[in-house]
Write a structure and sequence with these properties.
This protein is α+β, with helices and mostly antiparallel strands. The chain has a single domain, classed as Nuclear Transport Factor 2, Chain: A (Roll). It is built from two helices and four strands, in the order H-E-E-E-E-H. Strand 1 and strand 2 form a beta hairpin.
Length: 134
């Protein structure tokens, strides 16, 4: 059972990486998923998201740390909110990862939906006066 769960997580990250490649006109053969380093589930605007750091090997053999935000059971491109390489100085803030995943790095420029302190938790009822009302 644990092996299946790990495989599902890996497949979700490969989908995120493929989405990044497609959005940036990069050939899939130029990027290879290596391993996940850190993962955390966070609340967002009426939804749950997974934040993940994972290593990717480029066609030059160099390893790069990536950040991805996606739905917990990522099975398709539409489940990926953001997937991007991290620079050495990327240490964006995420309230959702502060306590449970202190080592998880985020892009400094934002772009992710989950983990902001003004977010309404997914268990609370939304009304039309809330910023996140859909």
């Amino acid at each position: 059972m644990r092996k299946r769960r790990q495989e599902r997580k890996r497949k979700g990250l490969v989908i995120a990486l493929n989405t990044y490649a497609k959005r940036n006109n990069i050939q899939l053969s130029e990027l290879e998923f290596v391993e996940e380093k850190e993962r955390n589930q966070v609340d967002g605007c009426a939804a749950l998201y997974v934040h993940s750091n994972f290593l990717v090997k480029g066609s030059d053999g160099k390893h790069t740390m990536f950040f991805a935000e996606m739905r917990p059971d990522c099975t398709q491109e539409e489940d990926v909110v953001l997937c991007t390489p991290l620079e050495e100085n990327n240490y964006g803030h995420c309230y959702g990862c502060d306590d449970r995943a202190k080592e998880l790095r985020h892009p400094s420029g934002g772009g992710y939906l989950g983990g902001h302190n003004e977010m309404i938790f997914h268990l609370e009822e939304l009304d039309s006066d809330d910023d996140c009302f859909m």
